[in-house]
Amino acid sequence: MIINQYLDSNKQFLIIGLIWLFVGIYLGPVYFVLIPAMLLLMYKKQMHLEILLGFFLILTLSDSRSQNFLFAANIKNVYIVLISLFSYQEMKNSNLRIDFYKYFLPFFIIAFICIFFNPNMFLSFQKVLSYVLLFCFLPTYFLIVYKKYGDDLLRSIFWLVCVILFLGILFNFFNSNLTVLVGRYRGLLGNPNGLGLYVFLFLIFFSVVINEKPDIVSRNEKIIIYGICFFSLLKCGARTSLASTLIYFFFKKFYKLSPIIGFFIFILTLVIYQIISDNLIEIITSLGLGDELRVSTIENGSGREVAWKFAWEQINQNFFLGKGFSYTEYIYRANYEYLSLLGHEGAAHNSFLTFWLDVGIIGLVLFLMALFVTFLNLAKLNRSAIPILYAVLFSNQYESWLTASLNPFTIQFIFIISFIFFAKHLSDDRITN
Hints:
19 helices
């Protein structure tokens, strides 16, 4: 019944998605022409729902390691420019706005200045531009699409994520080579930690929406969605994402009672954090989750200590101003063999260190100030805002997803912020914070 409803209400999007997959996988560079041409035609036909869902789908596919989905990683740069143009045009026609991006303007200026110190200025410029476009235009486009389609947009996002998660579970039974990386489940995402982040952010989005709109899905649908999400989260063994999810739901309970109670519980949690950290292995083992949460790798942080030490060494060379977006990837790639011998693969695994490397301490402080001001404004509208901030800050202490724009994680973060901003003011002609 649920599947039939989803197929019936999303027929056009599913057909479009299948066409993009076929062209991207089998027809080579044709997708560089076909997908933008289809997007322009879709905009002409006012298919805003399909455009927004398509962007989310492309970003999700772009995270995959499969060569079949390489087209998504290549086309997403074109997609963000087009969707920004569509948003700008609709803003002129309707005068709708969600403008929390204004708090980030000083950060954007510093990010552009740092481009001139980057070894690959063009790549750095692309990344900064995409970050600016995502924050400036996607929130308003999300609002515009919601104004036109209402709760159908939210339900479509719910079931798109669930379909992606379910297909990962399904494929794991028939061909685990597609869904397992170095012995860990990753579903259709690029790596297990990526799957964990994907689920963590979606759970926050889903929770925020159903708190505001309890009847948007039925009780059975809630059980299905939560079931698929928590199964995927536990199976991938992403400790940071599981902890971040628990942090959100834990503090959400107390902030629902009273922000003052919630704040004091947060302070108490900081006090006992070290006690929990020192006994974490014993706690996980006693819960019977030793294998799922890989207790054998906890002490060295899965190589993160090596990554953080290396980042700090580089930061001391460029303390106040960094060397532009993408510099962290560049410096870690250049030292891949050395870091690999020490037990680390990947980048900094910490958004704050990554920002520090890319835009310096000045850029990092400006970003954090903008983030805190944004969530203080959100807290006036929704008591879940501060628990979301706690969870997001914790997550970014161990992963670097917030330092990039064109991934399937930051877009969900934008969805969450945007929904809270406009949920209380849906009848306004102009929506600002």
